[in-house]
Amino acid sequence: MRIMSIPVIASAALGTALAAPLFWFTPVKVEAPTDATPIAVEPYVESWKCPDCTPEEQYVLEQLQEHTRISDRNALATIMGNIKQESKFISNICEGGARVSYRDCHSGGYGLIQWTSVNRYNNLGKFCEKFACDPSSLEGQTRYMINESVFQRYLPMFEGNGQSVQQYMVPAYYWLGWGIKGAREVYAWDYTKKLVLV
């Protein structure tokens, strides 16, 4: 009889152990789920941000881009500069500086863009009554401002690209009809330096 050496016995045992799982386990078939719902992926769209602006300014900037097709920095800066001149982004401001609710401003302009004419002022209240918003709030006034017929009339001029702040001041004047130009154009130029495309 032949005597096997330890290395031969060890390698035979190892070979048997490695081969055993092939016979003991059979592969399990996994079926793909049939009720899988594809996930819609929305591409990232760049937008203008103003990291150094107040929360009120940032909100208006965001809403303008979300609810219009304005993508030009100078156009956005012009609108922002005009709002800053009119109200400093204080929504409950009555002409002259008093902080009052919509119903308590009885003369002059009111709100973000100082709605002055009776029709424009009354339409702010009607809009917020119809769409359940507060006419004294930033949110309510921003919604009204974007949807107001006067703004909508001149909106295409802001949605074009490539004009200077000075050129965008023309539709801004038609939109607001200001009596005193003030620093609105200076404010607009300041916004052009603050806005970053992210």
The total count of strands amounts to 2
Biggest pleated-sheet summary:
2 strands, antiparallel
How much helical structure, as a percent, in the residues?
A: 40-55%
Q: Which architecture of the domain at 64-197 does the CATH hierarchy give at level 2? A: Orthogonal Bundle
Mean pLDDT: 90
Q: Label the structural class.
A: mainly alpha
Strand residue content:
under 5%
What would the CATH topology of the domain at 64-197 be?
A: Lysozyme
What is the alpha-carbon Rg in Å?
33 Å
Q: What overall form do the CA principal axes indicate? A: elongated
Which ranges are low-confidence, i.e. pLDDT below 50, for 5 or more consecutive residues?
A: none
Q: What string, H for helix and E for strand, traces the elements in order?
A: HEHHHHHHHE
